[in-house]
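WARN no homologs supplied; continuing
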Amino acid sequence: MIRFEHVTKRYADGTTAVDDLSFEVAEGELVTLVGPSGCGKTTTMKMVNRLIEPTSGQIYLDGSDISTVDPVELRRRIGYVIQQVGLFPHKTVLDNTATVPHLLGWQRKKARARAAELLDLVGLDPSVFGDRYPDQLSGGQRQRVGVARALAADPPVLLMDEPFGAVDPVVREHLQNEFLRLQSQVHKTVLFVTHDIEEAVRLGDRIAVYGEGRIEQFDPPTAVLGAPATPYVADFVGADRGLKRLSVTPIEPGDLVQPPIVHLDDPLPDAAARLAVDDPEARWAVVLDDAEHLHGWVSADALAGGGTVRDHSRRMAAWLPVGASLKQAFSTMLQHDAGWIAVLDGEHADHFLGVLTPARLHEALRRSIDADAKGGAREDVELETVSEA
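OK structure emitted
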């Protein structure tokens, strides 16, 4: 969808902002451009909508050389979101959102209907927020309006220049979550500029790590964190890149341990006997209902006596769906002071799959790193343990 071919931007004073840049962004891909201030990432993005003209080289949008397209018409086909949002203070939220459709000649009713649809999509009820003015919104709400406005004319490409940088960390994380949800629905081709490597890792399908005017590495987040291409990239992503990688490494079924299992209506003697057969050393068992859904857990000591498992089981709060990140798993363990978490298959009515322990979490991270380094699958990686070394 976007292609740079040997693009350079050099200013009159001799400063080279971007030097011989070549890369491609596939349709529907979200690429984050990350690097320190002055490295050329914003210049790169602004050349796509011709707010800045390159000194040499070509930029193509959906196969067309953008230098042959009228700049105004080009910009109306590209959504643009900036850090300070840039809403018109004298216009309502609904009219702000409908700005580009109005410029494209849409009828007022159609433009406002599209604006209302987009506001709802970004989590702002148009019946509540549509008639408000920007100064009546919080920073996070204004940022959502900015995203809605950028999407209003259904552009194929979205340019985002540090859009969440002006809000506090809690709101920023919420906006990131909402944007990922939104992108899963609209599938836009996105260039997203940030100076924050954690944001780049969390959002990007691929990451372009900038040095001074050049891309030092252009890879998926797991590769950038697991196998930095240069010492510069390794230094930029930080010595804690292993921890950062937790956020982009999903829980897979092969990471799980299968614990002893009992059911809610099992008589205690039957449950105790099953536990003794499955794992005589086990001090607990997972409790499922008749549909194999997670109910909780029960201690081995509680299985002595009469009654059923239901009378002694405890609800289980520490659980996640398969595919959640290892970072979420680690956080959940800490939050609930849990030695393990249950993992469910959310696509099949929360069917219980197994449990993830701290040891298996560590193994999953190591396997992921080794798999990327060797170009294989996680399940094919054989780990060397301390005892084997």
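The chain has a mean pLDDT of 87.
OK
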